[in-house]
Design goal:
The structure holds two protein chains of two kinds. Chain A is mainly β. Chain A contains no helices and nine strands. Chain A has strands spanning 9-13, 18-23, 31-38, 45-50, 53-56, 61-64, 70-75, 84-92, 105-110. In chain A, the strands form two sheets. Chain A has a five-stranded mixed sheet with strand order 1-9-8-3-4, with no helix packed on it. Chain A has a four-stranded antiparallel sheet with strand order 2-7-6-5, with no helix packed on it. Chain B is mostly beta strands. Classes of the chains: A mainly beta, B mainly beta. At the A-B interface, strand 3, strand 4 and strand 8 of A face strand 4, strand 5, strand 9 and strand 10 of B.
């Protein structure tokens, strides 16, 4: 199982772009990379998923280098409501594997 | 994505009693669901995999006789915390994985407080 490493916390200001990097050196060939957002006392919410290169949706972008040993979640123009914990997970294969959560990154957005 | 609900959203019980938590997949048939536990300011910890039509599989260190899991149908899994104690107080979250997508959709969670 691929283990992930993220910064414990990050601070930002409203309107800034935030990049959170996750290391997953042991990622397997068929693993996808998925990011979740969690607010206090709520279940995690799916943000974005990718396999390689770049993926963009309406809320975020995900950058994955060629060696796939890391990934970067990019949140454009954050607001106070983006204050949350962000988890990077890797999961493998055509049959979903169990997801083991790392420590996550607590993003604090300041006014 | 899948819509997942949990009931109740919070529960308070006395020590020694049993508590049942339901997890429902509202728009997706799930042969597998996952149960997590989260203590304050900590990450989610996978407890067990709930399998429709067969026994649940538990992660190392999780007591299967204490945390009873029943996957009654393709849309319902239940977690029963038996003989609950204050140390079982936690946030319990279930998830529904989507095959082939390596994505899980999580329920809103259930806050259990054992007095």
């Amino acid at each position: 199982l691929a283990k992930t490493t993220q910064p414990i916390s990050m601070d930002s200001y409203e309107g800034q772009e935030v990049n959170i990097t996750c290391s997953h050196n042991n990622i397997a060939t068929n693993d996808y990379i998925t990011w979740y957002q969690q607010f206090p006392s709520q279940g995690p919410r799916f943000i974005i998923q990718g396999y390689k290169t770049k993926v963009t949706n309406e809320v975020a972008s995900l950058f994955i280098p060629a060696d796939r040993k890391s990934s970067t979640l990019s949140l454009p123009r954050v607001s106070l409501s983006d204050t949350a914990v962000y988890y990077c997970l890797v999961g493998g294969g055509y049959n979903f594997n169990k997801f083991y959560f790392g420590s996550g990154t607590k993003l604090n957005v300041k006014p | 994505g899948a819509v997942v609900s949990q009931h109740p959203s919070w529960v308070i019980c006395k020590s020694g009693t049993s508590v049942k938590i339901e997890c429902r997949s509202l728009d997706f048939q799930a042969t597998t669901m996952f149960w997590y536990r989260q203590f304050p300011k900590q990450s989610l910890m996978l407890m067990a995999t709930s399998n429709e039509g067969s026994k649940a599989t538990y992660e190392q260190g999780v007591e299967k006789d204490k945390f009873l899991i029943n996957h009654a149908s393709l849309t319902l899994s239940t977690l029963t915390v038996t003989s609950a104690h204050p140390e079982d107080s936690s946030f319990y979250i279930c998830s529904v994985p989507l095959a082939g997508a390596d994505t899980q959709y999580f329920g809103p969670g259930t806050r259990l407080t054992v007095l």
